[in-house]
Structure formats: C-alpha cells, structure tokens
Specification:
Helix 2 (98-107) runs antiparallel to helix 3 (113-128). A five-stranded mixed sheet has the order 5-2-3-6-7. The protein has a two-stranded antiparallel ribbon with strand order 1-4. The protein starts with 22 loop residues before the first helix and ends with a helix. The protein has helices at 23-44, 98-107, 113-128, 142-145, 174-183, and strands at residues 50-52, 61-72, 77-88, 92-94, 110-111, 132-141, 156-163. The chain contains five helices and seven strands; from the N terminus they run αββββαβαβαβα. 23% of the residues are buried. It has one domain (50-183): GTP cyclohydrolase I, C-terminal domain/NADPH-dependent 7-cyano-7-deazaguanine reductase, N-terminal domain (GTP Cyclohydrolase I, domain 2). The structure holds zinc ion. The site of zinc ion has 5 residues, from loops.
C-alpha cells in the first residue's frame, strides 16, 4: 500500500514521545528549538560580496577543511564533516570567509549531501563566474553509523566538478592539484 504523506507536515510527526520529557523540558524545549531555528535562518542569510581584480590572477584559490554540521533530511539525524572548495578565478574574487559561509548556508537546514555539494558549487559559480570550480564533501552520517547498517568510521564523499576542473586545457591538471592539497592535511 502506498502511504500518502505529501499533505502532512513533518513537524506533526514527533520524533520522541511527549511523555519522555521532564517538566522543565516540556516547558522550555519548544523555545530552545525555536531559538536554534532562528540561528539556522541567520546562518542562511549573508551577503556574498565579490571584488574585481585587474591583475590576471588565474591560479587556484583553495579553501580546505571547512567543518560543518547538517541534518539528513531522510532521517533527521545529523551528518557532519568537512568541505573543500577550490576555484580558478576569471577576474573576480571573494573574501576568504565567504566560502565557509556558503558551506554553512547550505548546511543550515535538513539536507542531502549530494544536493548540498551541488548547491554550494552552483551558488559560488553564479557569483564568481570562475574558470572552474570544484567542491568536495566528506561526511559521517549518523543515520549510517548509529542506526541501520551501523558502520562506524564510514564516510560519504561527494564532489561537484565544473569548468576547467572537468575539462582542463592541455598541460593543466587542477583536479589533481586540488586533491593533493587536501591529502596534505
Ligand atoms: Zn539519512
């Protein structure tokens, strides 16, 4: 039988039985959840400023080991890990903090890692119009380590590879260069 869930709100399906909570929690947890929700919304809202450069800087800019925490939208359990981003500019740069902020922006809601990887690449690509961009995310999913298949130490690795990272010109191998930087940590 197919269960129709499309019209039901997920929030109407409590994860824990209400009776499990003590009185203090029953009274204050809804407010704490609301506060956390506001914090996530703030994280999603930031200005990605860019600046033009005169010099023809066309070397790779890499921001690696960006820690993040998100929630798997299938199981509402956390997944956490690190993101690595590299781009080769085409006359436009951004402040270094904009890349981790972009990762936080897309992590700050229930997510699917594969989609999040793509969204981060799309968002930066639209704003910087670089020659190429590559995003790699490595994360541990509680829905895999603490339940279901129960495998500790298992990571999921996803990537999004665009422009010259995907189709490099003769004599250039930015993908390899980027991966070697990640390995060095
Ligand atoms: Zn999951």
């Amino acid at each position: 039988m197919v269960v129709e869930m499309s019209d039901e709100k997920i929030v109407d399906k409590p994860f824990f039985d209400n009776d499990w909570f003590d009185e203090e929690s029953k009274e204050n947890t809804p407010r704490r959840i609301e506060g956390y929700k506001e914090e996530l919304e703030e994280r999603r809202d930031f200005k990605f400023t860019t600046f033009e450069i005169d010099e023809d800087y066309d070397e790779m800019v890499s921001i690696v080991n960006i820690d993040f925490m998100s929630f798997c939208s299938h199981h509402m359990l956390p997944f956490r890990g690190t993101a690595h981003v590299a781009y080769i500019p085409n006359g436009k740069l951004c402040g270094a903090s904009k890349i981790p902020r972009t990762v936080d922006k897309f992590a700050a809601r229930p997510q699917i890692q594969e989609v999040m990887t793509m969204e981060i690449a799309d968002y930066i690509e639209e704003r910087l119009e670089p020659r190429g961009i590559m995003v790699m995310i490595e994360a541990e999913h509680m829905c895999m380590t603490e339940r279901g298949v129960n495998k500790d130490n298992t990571s999921m690795i996803t990537s999004s590879i665009r422009g010259v990272f995907r189709n490099p010109p003769e004599g250039m191998n930015p993908r390899e260069e980027f991966l070697s930087m990640i390995d060095r940590r």
